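ok posting inputs for the adenosine-5'-diphosphate job
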Amino acid sequence: MMPIDGQPVLTAAQMRAAEERAIAAGASVESLMQRAGEGVAAAVRRLAAGAEVLVLCGPGNNGGDGYVAAATLARAGHPVRVAALGEPKTAAAQAARAQWTGPVESFPAGLPEDAAHAPVVVDAVFGTGLSRPLEGDVGRAMQALASFARLSIAVDLPSGLDTDTGAELGGPLSTAEHDLTLALGALKPAHVLQPGAKQCGAVRLLDLGLGLDRISAPRTDVSAVETIARPRIARPEPWSHKFSRGMVTVVSGPMHGASELAALAAYRAGAGYVQLLTGGLPQRPHAIVRRRWSADALDDKRIGAAVIGPGLGRDDRAREKLEVALASDRPLVIDGDALHLLDLARLRERKAATVLTPHAGEFAALFGEGEGSKIAHAQAAARESGAVVVFKGPDTVVAQPDGLADVSTGASSWLSVAGTGDVLAGTIATMLAQRPHAPREAASAGVWLHAAAARRLAGCFIADDLANALPGALGECL
Ligand SMILES: NC(=O)C1=CN([C@@H]2O[C@H](COP(=O)(O)OP(=O)(O)OC[C@H]3O[C@@H](n4cnc5c(N)ncnc54)[C@H](OP(=O)(O)O)[C@@H]3O)[C@@H](O)[C@H]2O)[C@@H](O)CC1
Ligand SMILES: Nc1ncnc2c1ncn2[C@@H]1O[C@H](COP(=O)(O)OP(=O)(O)O)[C@@H](O)[C@H]1O
Ligand SMILES: [K+]
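and the output
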């Protein structure tokens, strides 16, 4: 079982292609299924600690994995039952079924309520092949079994999810929520995008030897999408000075607090010099250099990145400031109000790096609703705008115009509080000032630090606390 950061994310079609490549290279579906099922059995056995396991098997290869897992557990002397939704349909699943010599109960109808329950439930009903909503009582029965069980584990994916979008095919609350999902061979979008990610519980990867790791396969060869890994951040060199550490300028507006938060976060994320272009009164921290806005305020080559949008307002003065920022040759983070004033045609004229940080509402206003997954939406928006797009939320996606994209995993839902987006904008600006030629990497590093800072707070917090937790998160990256 492997952790899931820095791993490729493959669609169902990309997964099939990887499987076909492995088969062309001499593997067989049966050998891959054997490896998958044995991997599942090993994980289940360790976690079940001797408790009875009920394996629910579907008609396809996901069910095949389940039969192999059940047979492997039984051979090891572990108490295990099997219940199936129909007979296996594929040759590989039929061969796997033949390994299981015990009785097969029928699922869901044949399981009387009490007999059905087991302390450990394994969902091997549907995986990447599910193309339509779960029929009849399957979803409801699975929910009942999973919620009764002390431990419920999904094989590859919780049954009922759309692999490529993470949506519940039968609509909200139609699938069971598991404690653990064992992703087979590679992560799929449903493991990282909501609501699928929540239904998965913890996600761990089981390697099937498909050669999908980044050492065997360069990123674009198998998938353009990867989960965000902990960034490496360099300590200041002995010869570093405040400007070489990264200078961030935050453009303020009538709502001072938002830009103050962005400026504070920029410092806490490691910038050497942060200035706030504000008409507000001096306040803490005194380290923030406050200057009045002027039309040439961004004509300073030392500025590594500027932030515009938090608390900017949407009046003519805000428009004027945004136009100056767009015309400047400094790398730019565009957030909040500025996203509502933004003209995409004007943005495409910019040569310097630009990072847009919309939440779902800002994203829809700028780019429309779009088709497909959140990853596909972010990729299309990056292509359309020519900028790096950070599509925020519980499953933040960072995409660059050529299609490469990163997805955040494990963001704390306590981030759903005012001002945390301003903290993210400031954090990304510092990363961008330090990596002006790698805006996607900078944005993803900022998203990682932001999520790590929230994890360190472990509970309810306000945006100021989050900014102040950034140095600890940074310490995890040195
Ligand atoms: N990739 C790899 O390298 C490896 C992949 N492996 C495993 O294979 C899994 C993918 O297997 P899969 O393609 O057979 O699909 P799966 O998810 O079992 O379901 C398809 C079956 O369900 C049926 N069906 C669909 N919807 C239905 C509904 N609502 N209600 C009822 N039935 C429905 C559908 O019927 P049909 O649509 O054809 O009528 C078909 O029979 C993958 O997740 C992983 O676990 C490993 O074994 C080894 C290596
Ligand atoms: N439920 C959630 N789970 C995880 N992260 C969240 C959640 N809600 C919001 N966030 C994160 O918190 C930040 C909120 O940003 P934003 O919506 O712009 O808020 P604000 O404008 O108040 O600063 C984003 O980074 C977003 O990804
Ligand atoms: K499953």
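notes: The chain has a mean pLDDT of 95. The first helix runs from residue 12 to 24.
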